[in-house]
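Lay summary

Proteins are chains of building blocks that fold into shapes. Our project writes down both the chain and a compact code for its shape. Here are two examples, one after the other.
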Amino acid sequence: MSKTETNRTRLLEAPVGRTLAGLTVPMIFGVLSMVLYHLADTFFVGKPGSSYSQANKERLKWLAGENRLHPSIKNTVQSILSEEYRFPRDILREIKKDKLAWRNYERFSDSYKRIRIAYIDSARNRPEEFTRRLKSFVDRTRRNKMLGYGGIEKYY
């Protein structure tokens, strides 16, 4: 009997109490690791002077537009909301080289363009990753495909 079959049999046929007790410790470690990750993420992102990703800036703009920003942070994020994004010329030049990709790109929403281009630009100090992201974006844009997952597409 394979290990998978043994584990399946143990889960389905072993006494429930013993099975749950055996799964409790790994689940506790999993939950604790998620809590620690989110605490660290909150600490570093929430520190004064931390930079916001372009996606987070777009979320803030969307929340402000929907009048859903909590009053306690409105003044704090005002400078972020009024920031103008400057598109890197070299990235735009690369997209323009592909006529179909450029035509499709021009039809995308401004927030989508800012998020995707900022994502590419954030890899600038890693040339291989920068090139990979740019090529992938141009390829998808040529096919008129937008990137987005995890709910971010609602901010486009």
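And here is the second example, written the same way.
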Amino acid sequence: MTPTDRARNPGPTEDRETERRAKKAASDRRWYANPGNRAKQATSIRQWRADPENRAKLTAYMRRWRARPGNSAKKAASARRWLVRKLGLDYDPAGQPGACCKACGATQELNLDHSHTTGTYRGLLCGPCNRALGFLRDDPGRVASLLEYITHR
């Protein structure tokens, strides 16, 4: 029997394997649908990561992964796609022609700025402006106090 014949007429082994996979997928869906199971799993993961030995293993693994050619770029692209989806945008504003930082006008290292309280997209910020806003905890009072400090000192 050739591979083509097997694809047209799966034998009993292939049928059983397909059926086993379908049952496993259904079982997994039921398990993940139960919020109690997800909470147990999250707790278990947190406890595993809290162990210093496991944290060291995870850190070493991630360093090796990032060192492989192309992986850091893949991770950055994946993170940006996730953020675009999370914010409900159907395009990546940083990839548009003429995109620049809304605070200083820089065109390099653009980030999608969003409110952590409302989850809404606010605009593009360059890396330094985005980090500064994060350090100031998105608090307009802190920004005003800091501005007053640097203009009067």
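What can we say about the second shape? The chain is about 65% helix and 5% strand.
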